[in-house]
Amino acid sequence: MAFDLQSQRILILDFGSQYTQLIARRIRQANVYCEIHPCDWPTAEIEAFAPMGIVLTGGPESVHVDNAPRIPDIVFQLGVPVLGICYGMQAMARQLGGQVEPSAYKEFGYAQARARGHSRLLRNIEDHTTPEGYGLLDVWMSHGDRVAGLPEGFKVIASTLGAPIAGIGDDERRFYGLQFHPEVTHTTQGQRIIERFVGEICGCSGQWTASNIIEHSVTRIREEVGTDQVLLGLSGGVDSSVVAALLHQAIGEQLTCVFVDNGLLRLNEGAQVMATFARHMGVRVIHVNAEERFLTRLAGVVDPERKRKLIGRIFIDVFDEQAGKLDGVKWLAQGTIYPDVIESAGAKTGKARLIKSHHNVGGLPERMNLRLLEPLRSLFKDEVRCIGLELGLPTELVYRHPFPGPGLGVRILGEVRKEYADALRRADAIFIEELRHYELYDRVSQAFAVFLPVKTVGVTGDGRRYEYVIALRAVETTDFMTAQWSHLPYELLEEVSRRIINEAEGISRVVYDISGKPPATIEWE
Ligand SMILES: Nc1ncnc2c1ncn2[C@@H]1O[C@H](COP(=O)(O)OP(=O)(O)OP(=O)(O)O)[C@@H](O)[C@H]1O
Ligand SMILES: O=c1[nH]c(=O)c2[nH+]cn([C@@H]3O[C@H](COP(=O)(O)O)[C@@H](O)[C@H]3O)c2[nH]1
Ligand SMILES: NC(=O)CC[C@H](N)C(=O)O
Ligand SMILES: [Mg+2]
């Protein structure tokens, strides 16, 4: 039995900050396990979670408004360290007897904080030193309120122009507050501050490492699954690939993967999946050629939402059939990761409007009567990648750009046809190949080609051409919620355009997408 890897854990209580997930990733980067829960998580749950420390996030509210979210009293009664960030600091100050007021200087963006190097939290952490010997920190601020009076037992540990009380600390009780955001990269010492809090102050020793996570998951999977058979949908994407590698290590022959070629995959994707998993790693992979079935059912369907839903449904049918052909399968493994869990909890509150239905094969288990196995459920993407590398997956696979579940189905605008998919596959492969050639693939977050079923006139070899258009899309983003279009070099765009028109059948024009998200989205449908 592996030791309990999650026994040293930090609780993050979320007051609605844009940066909540970043806080969690920073803590995980310090090799400490943490979970995010809503700020009104019931007292009994908080007690049962038994955190070694608590972080209170920022949030859009002001502590003065009626019904402003409160910190549960238990947070201050557990005897563990507490770090309040922005709203979290303001709420902490107010609840412990200090004052908070609307600030005359609202600070949004970069600021310099004078750190008075006498707290455990900030001692010897600085970017610059003033001539008088004070430490200076480059920090990121985003607030309209500020703490105006200290609660009892606290001292000021940092100040900025707009917030003379930009940090507070009570070393005795180990309660700290920061008006600035240590979790964003603009706060250059942010990672060190977070490491200081979870490490030295909370006493977590950094057990949450890739090799420990693997060892722990392998033991847990073996205990859970016993001698049962497990089925996994393998897409060639990062998540299901890492699940395949992990399950293969844990249960070997008890794993069967199904790879469905729906005719909407990238060039050579099927061959790559088979080469990596079946030949190289010895995983049992069933390759299902379902191209005709998908394309037949998609014929004549032009509405993006209908296409997405239909593709999801056909996937389920194909899976269902495959599961029926296998003996003794009791489990369905999925590549669910922590952001999926957090986001679907958020989606349940129903406040967000639907922009597009992200297809997932998530509806499977109910119909198939299989139990769900989700070994990556508590991991962020970067952790999943580390584990993938540690398990020996090729770097190109682990650092692949995301590829949507409906695949080329949402990159061919309107009706999907085989000849469009073939042209698009070729164009996309050329774009990616040239990006790699220019060493830009890893510098952009996602890049792909889109097929526009619009004919335009061209001239080649003194002849007239009347053919389709390819749009290129490349974006930079950290969370895929917002994105900027990449300023790719003209020479690269020129080379890609020339090659696509020459090499991809039926294309006479190439354009580059210069829309950000918002107002556009990353995919075109
Ligand atoms: N072509 C496919 N063949 C088999 N299973 C698939 C295929 N496409 C998707 N799946 C299954 O459906 C799940 C959801 O797919 P989707 O692409 O939406 O998710 P994802 O988070 O991108 O995961 P991944 O990185 O594994 O592709 C995948 O994890 C995989 O288990
Ligand atoms: O698994 C997925 N199933 C989907 O149906 C889907 N639609 C979009 N995407 C990916 O999500 C990110 C944001 O895309 P959008 O800006 O187009 O919404 C981008 O990375 C998109 O590629 C999907 N991923
Ligand atoms: N980012 C925050 O947590 C902001 C807190 C509060 N709404 C303020 O404006 O000061
Ligand atoms: Mg995928």
From TrEMBL:
Active site: C86, H181, E183
Domain GMPS ATP-PPase positions: 208-400
Gene Ontology molecular function: ATP binding; GMP synthase activity
Residues that hold ATP according to the record: S235, G236, G237, V238, D239, S240, S241
GO cellular component: cytosol
Gene3D superfamilies assigned: 3.30.300.10, 3.40.50.880, HUPs (3.40.50.620)
Pathway assignment: Purine metabolism; GMP biosynthesis; GMP from XMP (L-Gln route): step 1/1
Quaternary structure and interacting proteins, as annotated: Homodimer.
Name listed for the protein in its UniProt record: GMP synthase [glutamine-hydrolyzing]
